[in-house]
């Protein structure tokens, strides 16, 4: 299984676009990308999950780990997701209280909190 990933910079934010399934097999690739970005000095991340079809607990763990990593540098990690089946996972786990979740990359980039 492959996990399509791409990154781009918008202002002081780094956008990580993710597609496909984030599961026990593909989550390590996302983890490596997030670690690499933070190690390179990108502390304000936006993870665009609009192309994600499936997310399991391993994927959630990677996102939480990424959040902890950027917060250690006074950074932020925002999510872009408008798919009900993925949003439901965040609601059920209570992670909507942990992650700022936006409906578009533009909204996430413009947000200040």
TrEMBL record:
List the Gene3D superfamilies. STAS domain
Q: Where is the signal peptide?
A: none
Residue span(s) of domain STAS: 3-112
Domain of life assignment: Bacteria
Q: Which InterPro entries match?
A: Anti-sigma_ant (IPR003658), STAS_dom (IPR002645), STAS_dom_sf (IPR036513)
Q: Which NCBIfam families match?
A: ant_ant_sig
Family membership noted in the UniProt record:
Belongs to the anti-sigma-factor antagonist family.
Name this polypeptide is given: Anti-sigma factor antagonist
Which source organism does the UniProt entry give? Streptomyces atrovirens
Gene name tied to this protein: bldG
